[in-house]
Specification:
This protein is an alpha/beta fold. It has one domain (2-401). It is built from 11 helices and 18 strands. The chain has helices at 37-48, 64-77, 111-123, 143-149, 186-201, 211-232, 244-252, 262-265, 287-298, 349-356, 384-390, and strands at residues 2-6, 15-19, 27-31, 53-54, 56-58, 87-88, 91-92, 170-174, 177-183, 269-274, 277-281, 304-305, 308-310, 328-329, 332-335, 367-371, 392-396, 399-401. The strands form 4 sheets. The protein has an 8-stranded mixed β-sheet with strand order 8-9-10-11-13-15-16-17. A 6-stranded mixed β-sheet has the order 7-5-3-2-1-18, with no helix packed on it. Strands 4-6 form a two-stranded parallel ribbon. α3 packs parallel to α6 (211-232).
Amino acid sequence: MIKINMFQSGFGDSLLVQINTKSSMDTNILIDCGFNYKKILEKLKILLGKTPKLDRFIITHYDADHIQGAISLIKENGSSTSPKNFNIEQVWLNSYRHLQFFEKEDSEITPVISRRAESYLATKTIQNTNVEGAVSALQASTLASEIFKNGYLWNSDANGKAICIENLESFSINPKVNIRLLSPNENKLKELEGSFISDLSKKRLKPKDGKIFDDAFELYAQSIENLADIIEGPVSANNTKIDSEVIKKLSIGENYSKDTTKGNGSSIAFVLEFENKRVLFLGDAHAEIIIERLKSIYGDTGTIFFDAIKVSHHGSFNNNGPELYKIIDSNKFLFSTNGKHPSHKHPDLATISCIINRPLDHGITNRQLIFNYELEHLNGFENEALRQEFNYSMIYSEEVQV
């Protein structure tokens, strides 16, 4: 059995995946830890019980709604050899130290360079009082350094390199649990690193190895994601009255504009395989790289069935266009958000429409749309006639069994 706990993390993500193998190889995977860390910590302690082991802590990318609680979790947990709360076997996170696409200078970090770097950090500080539980980006810039300082195994599955398709196509956590990586690829990481180096040059800085450049990279990645969130806005008329014709029109995807943000392009996404089941975890990944990767793995022969799909980027239409839902399907679609982002409401109506307005296949008779919060802007879908016509149901639960 696979149990997915979608913690209420504000408009962010935090998921605990528990796989019961009916043996000593029970597997626990924590994916991200956004807002509401204290409440999430309490639930983690209950769910993990007397032997609190996390086989993998996967931090998909550097957006505050995915990493803010992760910083607190690692810092509070302390040393990997004598952890306070959880035995974390390995962390996945692509920090600057894992990116090797551009040459880094070997010279020491002089006081002059250090001052320039500190100045750079200050320019990337994000003050956002609208973000639930937010702290400034400067205060939240210690995730990579906390992982390093406390001695956690870090990207060891990729031999200490970046977690990307070229370094880690597929691997087994144990003989029964396998992961197939879908995103990112080297090109996406290279784009992010290149833009970071270009930004550094404005402060007359060249890339080097060292904690301060890890922090600088983390801040830069957060700052560009924050800007992208402000720009995105509602893309599918979330105040629209929902009826059959609106659903059909939205599902065509006339207003689809693909996500091109470099931060989301670096997001880790994967397929989890256990026995005869497979679950798709999309992070905030770009739809186009997911489509390309899935076709390379499973072929281009129609829709691919998954036992559950964690929808990308909280249901943003920029990451969930109609082409994606021509090749993936499930009877369980998972959404993690309270819909209260300061600049837009996720999930978008067009995303829901693309999921439900298509033929049933793979023995699916009803598609469950599963939310970890009740979302007022989706009330129009709570209509019996629409549920019957499009064969879906609306479910509100933090726990999903597959």
